[in-house]
Amino acid sequence: MAMPQLSGRTKNAAKRSKKYLEEALYVKLFKQGIEELSKAMSRRGMNTTVSDQAIHLDLLAKACGIRVAEDYFINLPKTSKSHLTYEALLNCYCKALMAEEAEAFLEKMKELNFGLTSMSYNSIMTLYEKTKQHEKIPSIIQEMKADSVMPDCFTYNIWMRAMVAAHDLSGVERVIDEMKRDG
User: Fold this and answer.
1) pLDDT one-digit tens code per residue, 142-176
2) 70-77, Cβ contacts within 8 angstroms, sequence gap of 24 or more
3) Contact status, residue 87 vs residue 54, Cβ threshold 8 Å
4) With contact defined as beta carbons under 8 Å apart, do 61 and 69 qualify?
5) Where are the domains of the chain?
6) Do residues 99 and 131 lie in contact, with contact meaning Cβ atoms separated by under 8 Å?
7) Does pTM top 0.90 for this prediction?
8) Based on C-alpha coordinates, what's the Rg of the chain?
9) Distance (Å, rounded) from C-alpha 159 to C-alpha 179?
10) Per residue in 47-57, pLDDT tens?
11) PPR repeats located where (predicted)?
12) Residue 25 half-sphere exposure, CB side, CA atoms within 13 Å?
């Protein structure tokens, strides 16, 4: 017996349903993982490091949403609010395409004199790239340079894509030249 062929419309609906189910399973597994990890750590009397808390914050944002991650961050003890947890929440805002929150949070990090890393700058530039604000990326690059933060491979890739989006071929060439110069 031959299998019935699905129409184009039905195939698309089936793909969307599969994607929805995969995302739902992903979120459920993250939530279960977070709960199990928290229980195991407390049963064993394990103290979490600031690095653990930054990872936990990121997992909470993925599994439970940005608001839950924000609440977790707010309730962290002052000693845990380091560049690691700040950077993790900044990255969460950027992934969620929350430009105003990300920009304000980046300013807060500057006020607190956290030494920003290429990761912080890359997060904000990726946000600008995804929200089609390519014109903001060169100023972030200049800020990085002014703060003596060396661009990494990811930085150069974002920067070149911004130049391409602006149809600035000479800009792409400048980025390539700078990559060669910086090694």
Assistant:
1) 999 999 999 999 999 999 999 999 898 898 899 99
2) none
3) yes
4) yes
5) 27-35+47-115, 117-183
6) yes
7) no
8) 21
9) 11
10) 678 888 898 89
11) 82-116, 117-151, 152-183
12) 6
Q: Model confidence over 55-83: pLDDT tens digits?
A: 889 988 988 899 999 999 999 999 999 99
Look at the chain and count its residues: 183
* Structure-block tokens of residue 139: 């100023």
Over the chain, what is the mean pLDDT? 84
DSSP characters over the chain: -PPPPPPHHHHHHHHHHHHHHHHHHHHHHHHHHHHHHHHHHHHTTPPPPHHHHHHHHHHHHHHH-HHHHHHHHHTS-GGG-SHHHHHHHHHHHHHTT-HHHHHHHHHHHHHTT----HHHHHHHHHHHHHTT-GGGHHHHHHHHHHTTPPP-HHHHHHHHHHHHHTT-HHHHHHHHHHHHHH-
CB 162 within 8 A of CB 130: no
Q: What is the dihedral of CA 15, 20, 22, 24, to 10 degrees?
A: -170
pLDDT at 9 (0 to 100): 52
Question: How many angstroms separate the CA atoms of 153 and 80, rounded?
Answer: 30
Q: Cβ–Cβ contacts within 10 Å for residue 63, how many?
A: 19
